[in-house]
Amino acid sequence: MYRQRNKIESSEGYKAVFLGYLAPILKALIDSSAVKNLIVGYESKYPQSQKIIELCEIHKIPVFCVDNIEKEAALKSHIFLNADIAVVGAFGQILSKDTLKLPKYGFLNFHPSYLPDYRGGSPIEEGLLRGEHIFGYTFHWLVEDVDAGPMVYQERLEFQAFSHYPEILNRLSERGGEVLFSLLNDTIANWPRLEQSHNSSFYYSRKKGEGTLEWSESPEIWFRKIKAFGWRNWASLEIRQGSILIEEAILHRNLNSSLGYGKVVATKPTLKISLGKFQLSLVRYQSSRALLSDEDLMPIRQSS
User: Fold this and answer.
1) 189 shares a domain with 103
2) CA-CA distance, 34 to 238, in Å (whole number)?
3) Cβ contacts of residue 246 below 8 Å, gap of 6+?
4) Is 249 helix (H, G, I), strand (E, B) or coil?
5) Would you say residue 296 lies in a domain?
6) Residue 211 to residue 209: CA distance in whole angstroms
7) 43-52, 165-174, 294-303: lowest mean pLDDT where?
8) Are the CB atoms for 282 and 264 separated by under 8 Å?
9) Is the separation of the CB atoms in 49 and 43 below 8 Å?
10) How does residue 301 score in pLDDT terms, banded at 50, 70 and 90?
11) What is the pTM of this model?
């Protein structure tokens, strides 16, 4: 897919490349007067890429599908021809050492954690699973080791205990877009290059089965899994004769703990499940069958 941009290339501005699906990061490049030439690459496997395509069409920016950039030599050469900088915002491919050398100043990556904490492919999910409520982001230069390059800027933001993954990513990337826009007001050669400490753990991407809600787990663990995995439709609960996929929920104290564990206490306006001292309200969910108040959801009632 290709769209030509109505912008005259200037030797006084930067030629930038954007790879990924985080629209606020791309928007900063579009809005910056320092960027005189821009080209974009997206991955078709991400639904969020549609927003990137739409932005490129509106602003007449050349946009290409790059599902395997390392194996598309001609396309890669075209995209990075005379590039000053490449900016990465949620791009799912590891770039080779030779590719990292193509832009004049290198690849600037937006990573949604306060590095070196939570290096790897699922930093927000890892933080939510550990009960974090303070999250961060880091702009850093890409090197061969994942999430290990020199840092340009980083910041921490505080969130409410009920914040789910999409809200956290959106707020971090929105703030990141503001910061990138400010950075581009200065010469790239003047940007900080702060070396990272490498005494940190690397976290690999999580698997679908890890979102399963087990009746033996505490309500707090359930809520952490829903916040981390609900957006993927991975937070699943096995019930009698079916299952529920939970996208968003709220956990709060149960005013009547005598209702027991695993009981449906209401179905409207939201589905509410009693979990002993807690109650889980399902804001968005999909159920394989209709649910009734006072129903016992537990597949196997544990004997006391």
Assistant:
1) yes
2) 53
3) 213, 226, 230, 235, 236, 237, 282, 284, 285
4) strand
5) no
6) 5
7) 294-303
8) no
9) yes
10) low
11) 0.91
Per the domain annotation, does 71 fall within a domain? Answer: yes
Rg (CA), the chain: 23
Domain that holds residue 20: 14-203
| pLDDT at residue 199 greater than cutoff 90 | no
The Cα 284–Cα 282 span in angstroms is 6
Is residue 9 situated within a structural domain? no
Contact present, 133 and 122 (Cβ < 8 Å): no
pLDDT at 75 over 70: yes
User: Is the peptide bond prior to 116 cis by the omega test (within 30 degrees of 0)?
Assistant: yes
What 3-state class would DSSP assign to 246? Answer: strand
CA dihedral angle for residue 126, residue 128, residue 133, residue 136, rounded to 10 degrees: 40
Please list the alpha-helical segments (H only) found in the chain: 23-31, 49-59, 73-79, 97-100, 123-129, 165-183, 219-229
Q: What is the DSSP string of 242-292?
A: EEEEEEEEEEEE-S-GGG-EEEEEE-SSSEEEEETTEEEEEEEEEESS---
Q: Is residue 294 part of a domain?
A: no
